[in-house]
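dumping this here so i dont lose it
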């Protein structure tokens, strides 16, 4: 199995920045896709960003130009650099991993990101 441990959440003012990290351990041989999801209270979980092992990234429109997903394959870690944060970015952020960008059987524990106005 694969374990994903997240870090880097917290409270930040609007316009500020945070970086989330997610380190994978265990059976990591076939982790080609990694992603960040978020879920705000009362809302559906949404895909924020995803990245392949080759570094090809995709983003939800609402974060384009503000968030950057990256991964360090040597460290088995995926990052989400968040800048120009808005109150509507407030959510629990989950990292996910899987064999592709469709199926994510492995999930992190979640990290709270709160953006104050």
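and the seq i came up w/
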């Amino acid at each position: 199995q694969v374990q994903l441990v997240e870090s880097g959440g917290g409270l930040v003012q609007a316009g500020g920045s945070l970086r989330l990290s997610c380190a994978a351990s265990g059976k990591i041989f076939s982790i080609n896709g990694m992603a960040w999801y978020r879920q705000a209270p009362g809302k559906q979980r949404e895909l924020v960003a995803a990245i392949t092992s080759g570094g090809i990234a995709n983003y939800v429109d609402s974060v384009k130009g503000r968030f950057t997903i990256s991964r360090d394959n040597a460290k088995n870690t995926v990052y989400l650099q968040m800048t120009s944060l808005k109150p509507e970015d407030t959510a629990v952020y989950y990292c996910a991993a899987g064999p592709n960008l469709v199926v994510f059987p492995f999930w992190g524990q979640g990290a709270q990101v709160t953006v104050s106005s």
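The mean pLDDT is 95.
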